[in-house]
Amino acid sequence: MKKNNIILIGFMGVGKGTIARAIVKSQGIFAVDTDDLIESMQNEKIKKIFEKEGEPYFRELEQRCADWIETSVDNTLISTGGGFFMRPNIKSLGHIVYLKSSFEGILKRIKKAPNATSKLKKRPLLKDMKKAKELYEKRVPQYEAIADLVVDVENKSLKEIVQFIKESLPQVLK
Ligand code: S3P
Fold this sequence. Notes:
With about 170 residues, this protein is of the alpha/beta class.
């Protein structure tokens, strides 16, 4: 049987954390974020882990999170880093919800944030916009292929997004 977790996936800056917090507020469900788990596990910021240890090591840490979720976590909302969907056991972790937006929509959202500079700075893979766009183009079909539910988040209010997810996953969110 499928695990009763909700796994939020999607590109950097699409709003996975913000949407997770809104769901928590309206539902009182427990939630964890894989980047937060990694940072507390390593006592180090993601940016530093990338600089000191490199991306392959960061992906190993993501795999450790995925394995822990698979063996030990249920009935939980899990927001993930933009590359977490590549973990081979992702489909065993719960209902995969892909938060979808155009690349321009994501940039607009980041630029609008009061802490836009820090949002860009803490994400090593957003340093070079041309490369980030290429990564986005490569990942979109991959996100879509593994998603159980696709949620178009562009031009929608947080309330509408939460409502849609709630209606689509009544087995998890009441
Ligand atoms: C990454 C996304 C980041 C973070 C890391 C790598 C990616 O998380 O996990 O910098 O590969 O897309 P956000 O999606 O929360 O920015």
